[in-house]
Amino acid sequence: MASIDIESVGKVYTGDVRAVTDINLAIKDGEFIVLVGPSGCGKSTLLRMLAGLETISEGNVKIGPRVVNQVEPADRDIAMVFQNYALYPHMTVRQNLEYGLKNRKTPKAEIDARVAEAARMLEIGQYLDRKPKALSGGQRQRVAMGRAIVRKPAVFLFDEPLSNLDAKLRVSMRGEIKRLQRRLGTTSIYVTHDQLEAMTLADRLVVLNGGKIEQVGSPLDVYHTPASVFVASFIGSPAMNLVKAECQGDKLAIGPATIPLNGYAPTSGPVTVGLRAEDLRVVSGEEGMPFAVEYVEELGSQRLAHGVVGDQALTIALSGEAEIADFMRIAIDPAKLHFFSVETGKRIERAENGAVAAGTRSPASVA
Amino acid sequence: MVENRPFLSFLTHLVLIVGVLIVVFPVYLAFIASTHGPTDFMSGLVPLLPGDQMMANYGYLLGSGESTAGAPPFTLMLLNSLWMALLIAFGKIAISILSAFAIVYFRFPLRTAAFWVIFMTLMLPIEVRILPTYKVVADLGLLNSYSGLVIPVIASATATFLFRQFFLTVPEELMEAARVDGAGPMKFFRDILLPLSRTNIAALFIIMFIYGWNQYLWPMLITTEPHYYTVVMGIKRLANVLDGDNQWNLVMTGVILAGLPPVLVIIFMQRLFVKGLVETEK
What we know:
The complex is a heterodimer. Chain A is of the alpha+beta class.
């Protein structure tokens, strides 16, 4: 059990290639942190720096009270689960689990007890004498987690552990990881590019882009008040609609349509406006934006209608039974609009009616 | 390919059978010759059926050796060859696997340069560098010794290269997992890389054993005492009788004796050998 402090950490590879810039993050003991972002955003690099597999170019990493910049991975009191499991192919499952403990000269009786406990917890007891080759993907994943659990480390590090599994298994393993982490109470850092995985697992989300933190917050905070255009487009499925618009007094002009803002106008002039597909609704009459449907995606529980308002592409999410015509009028509650600066892409807070907390880097409360 | 054309399968079998006959016939001839007495060849005709002198010929060569030709008993030469081939095979594997480990897993200055230097020695087999090597070995006082037989041929660029290629296919995460599991570099090498390379080591062992066994030029240069003769040289001694007719029956007996051990190694290690060359355990 330990807290982790990441202080102005950066990574520069040889040849002045900058992968990670000025990361500051305080992780509480027992917290489940998910690092999420597109490929190449530096999330794996950051994780590997915490693990000690990459050197830290700038800043400090503290695990508990100790600065671990120069400490070998084995001595950092961490355990890591790799994307391709990295099980030792020539060893049986039992030997795989025991290896790290043996290297630490743990007494035999204790090794046996811990392996038995982990095997029971992960239900891999009947595979202990098999080699990894004879296991399915899901079973290998469990063994990889078992190898981390038996060590009883202060921190678990997960590097996209579920991305080699099929969709169904991924959902069930996701649940298991969350359950296990709750039960063990071990501080965990989890890297993924899958925003759904990130939303469901995290106590706190860290959204990374281009080696920098875009936003830190609980999954709901990040979903409801994205701090930037990037976060808005990355978190949530279907992705948030982002359209060019203009604030004209108390009205917002999107293409040919104008929406009354009812006093929500945060600024004036051109803005980028974010509209969640699920916040948009179909209205009858002449009110609302003219929406020309181009095609419909059927998800069973939902129907996603893709179309345009003027020259701006929009997606709206409707219930499974909803009727979709070629041309509809749509509207949105002005309170549910997200405004972003055109120049910086940062969120513009609504001046009045500031009911929603600022989406900046304030450490949000744990859900 | 699934094809059913009788003429084609007849033709392919014919080609294969003729090929096998061409390869096997000289060996058969050598075996037949080794079972006859010395006078059976004087007529110039080689008999095609086994004679009755097999025990006598083999017993003579293995026991006392052809002393008039200056060859020690074959038992001694076979042991010399075995000793040399084993030392070369094990030495080559030990040295090359460690060099490959260093080249693949450690970042040190001039790492790539080191690899290319090793790789370039592929172009310098023993025959090319034989004079300078002889000079060095002679100056070191290693003539007529097992060290002199083995050391100049003990480094292998081929084996280093093969091990390097194999190590590159081992996922990097294994090394990282081992680091997190508290295994230092040598422990990782011993516990993980070595077991994974098992089939490669077996395949290379066979190749290198045969390479060592078949060494001819080098042992002939640096051994002048019969005590250090290897069996491949011994054949030459047998065939090189002054003032007299070659005893072809004995020469052929020697050929069979020298050819047998590599064949046995291949027969008994064939499974590992094929496995090592075609598949990796992952």
